[in-house]
Amino acid sequence: MTEYTPGPLDRDATVYVAGHRGLVGSAIWRHLDEQGFSRLVGRSSAELDLRDRDAVFGFFADTRPRYVVLAAAKVGGILANCTYPVDFLSENLQIQTNVLDAALQHEVERVLFLGSSCIYPKLAPQPIKEEYLLTGHLEPTNDAYAIAKIAGILHVQAVRRQYGLPWISAMPTNLYGSGDNFSREDSHVLPALIRRYDQARRTGAPSVTNWGSGTPRREFLHVDDMAAACLHLLEHFDGPTQVNVGTGQDLTIRDLAALVADAVGYDGETHWDTSKPDGTPRKLLDVSQLTASGWEPQVPLAEGVARTVAWYRSHGESIRQ
Ligand SMILES: NC(=O)C1=CN([C@@H]2O[C@H](COP(=O)(O)OP(=O)(O)OC[C@H]3O[C@@H](n4cnc5c(N)ncnc54)[C@H](OP(=O)(O)O)[C@@H]3O)[C@@H](O)[C@H]2O)C=CC1
Ligand SMILES: C[C@H]1O[C@H](OP(=O)(O)OP(=O)(O)OC[C@H]2O[C@@H](n3cnc4c(=O)[nH]c(N)nc43)[C@H](O)[C@@H]2O)[C@@H](O)[C@@H](O)C1=O
């Protein structure tokens, strides 16, 4: 492909944010709006089911976006991934294949595909560099989701090779923030802990029980930082390799639980249910490629958790169950 030099995106161009009502897509929408993008386009899954190939091609023909951020996906925490592997594999393959194929037909100038840090081998050396992709076995609790995401990375690379379009992929670490999924069974750990500890505080429960052993380590990035990183990559990065997006710092789930208990003001006991899966022992991303391009996260974990607790409390009934 001919060399592409990234630079500022055209603020008047049509930008399609797929998944604009989700945790990540809504933050990207807010950030692009704040940064002066005047033609943002989004559709809910009820308005446009991205598994419907004809509908996706019709939507692209109607709206003709110049840039696309693909933040629509079947997403969930460790238990949802274990319980519904067919959905995580099949729906994600359908969503991303339809959107990327339609974007190719319309020669969309820049596409940002979002994967996840679970694409890397379960026992990858830490911190995990981009080059460790496909060097070992995946974590079984989310291998179906990971395979779909790896297919997305390869899809983007193949478009670059065959058609020369400067599309890119980003691999975020575990994300959290306003608009997260706080459901009891399907959520990720941070919203689950906020809900559980806040409820225990309100009801005066003497103890809470979290999943697993509490020993796995995870890295958490606030979704507002994620949104800023997405625009930064679109304006400053081009290359075939997926780019890790994270903070470069992790902590144990046990320490995270203590932080959340403190943030919500709960002082009871914490127990651990080891019949629930731990997942991968550690997945700390090496973010040197991203930081070398001039980007750094702005939201410290304690502040981000406090902001998310406030959002959770102020949204009460409207949160996802
Ligand atoms: N949350 C996290 O910790 C992480 C997320 N990511 C990645 O970020 C991206 C966004 O995740 P996140 O925001 O957390 O997920 P959410 O579940 O919050 O949002 C997913 C979005 O996808 C849309 N969507 C799902 N299925 C369809 C469909 N069939 N047709 C149309 N739209 C659909 C939903 O639309 P609607 O609301 O209208 O139903 C929703 O807006 C994903 O690619 C995910 O892999 C990566 C690493 C960590
Ligand atoms: C983003 C990422 O998210 C998933 O991977 P994960 O990091 O393992 O996800 P998680 O947030 O669900 O759990 C992290 C840790 O936390 C522990 N844990 C304690 N108590 C609760 C709890 O109440 N809920 C949950 N969900 N976890 C809990 C849990 O046992 C585990 O040890 C993948 O689906 C993968 O697809 C992916 O990309």
Automatic annotation (TrEMBL):
NADP(+) binds at residues 19-25, 114-117, 149, 172-175, 188. The record marks S116, C118 as: Important for catalytic activity. The keyword Isomerase applies. It catalyses: GDP-beta-L-fucose + NADP(+) = GDP-4-dehydro-alpha-D-rhamnose + NADPH + H(+). Catalyzes the two-step NADP-dependent conversion of GDP-4-dehydro-6-deoxy-D-mannose to GDP-fucose, involving an epimerase and a reductase reaction. Substrate binds at R196, W211, R218, D278. Keywords: Isomerase, Multifunctional enzyme, NADP, Oxidoreductase. This is GDP-L-fucose synthase. The active site is at Y145 (proton donor/acceptor). Transmembrane segments: none annotated. InterPro entries: Epimerase_deHydtase (IPR001509), GDP_fucose/colitose_synth (IPR028614), NAD(P)-bd_dom_sf (IPR036291). Residues 15-246 form the NAD-dependent epimerase/dehydratase domain. PANTHER family: GDP-L-FUCOSE SYNTHASE (PTHR43238:SF1). Signal peptide: none annotated. Its EC number is 1.1.1.271. It comes from Georgenia halotolerans. Gene3D superfamilies: NAD(P)-binding Rossmann-like Domain (3.40.50.720), UDP-galactose 4-epimerase, domain 1 (3.90.25.10).
